[in-house]
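Continuing the batch. This is chain 6 of the set; chains 1 through 5 are on the previous pages. Same settings as before, nothing changed between runs. Recording input and output for traceability.
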Amino acid sequence: MSLDKLDLMLIEELETDARQSVQTLASKLGMKRTTISYRLNRMTTQGILKIACVASADLLGFQFPLVIGINVSAGKTNAVADRLVRLPVVKVISLTAGRYSLMAWALLRDRSNLAQFIVENLADIPDITAVELFHSYKWIRDSWRYFKPKTEMSARYPMDSPDDLDLSIINSMQRDPRQPVSELAKKVGCGKSVAKTRLEKLLNDGLISFVSIIDSTALGFDIGVVILIKSKPANTSAVANELSIQSTVRHVSLITGQWQIFVMAQFEDTEYLHNFLSNKLISIPGIMEFEVIYLVKTLKFSMSFFG
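Output for chain 6:
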């Protein structure tokens, strides 16, 4: 499906505020409510657009995110992926071309859960031949935006930990991020004013945010890659910060292991990728070595913290 000017304007508005009502969007764009509703439903149904409630893993107690590179026996990629999909702690799985057969992203409570995850989850899957684990200990950029790509990573830490009502609200909003507050209140069993106040506090404290997730291929970004980077220790932060302001880069984090920086980026075609690697990347002081891994297909993508 090709996107026209109105589709792109609608996506841009949702990137600014993914919870805007259809009526608000129609007023801003000077269109009829029915037209905007139709466009939203069409893009959602066709998998181009998804509105999601993103929760702060760190603030919810998931303080040990992992990037996992996995190699498997010949012909067993799908079987291994099917087993990984069923693991609640594994949130994203991608079929890749390069160093690994698969790459996965998992969220653990803390380091004490690592041994259990390896022994009870990964070691129990037949046909995994090798695993490489990277602790993603600091996110520099995590952006879902295409039209306004520069996203701040600063979270505002709340004074109090989320209670059971907060967690119920987060769970409900992750299931249906555009539901009205009145409906949310009924689902979590509280008054509308209480639900509204709690939801606003969760947003203001940085515990949750609402984002529009776009199928990048619909915007012309046909190539997705992971770039693993080795840098001089004194330059690691500067390199990561420089990468984070590049328009094609979506996610940057500092990781442990033989690589120091993890990057996810998207490009229109191989020429754009080549120009980025050959001109931009090698011009950043402090980069010693890098490796590119193609993201062939996403096999699982979950933002839920509740299984």
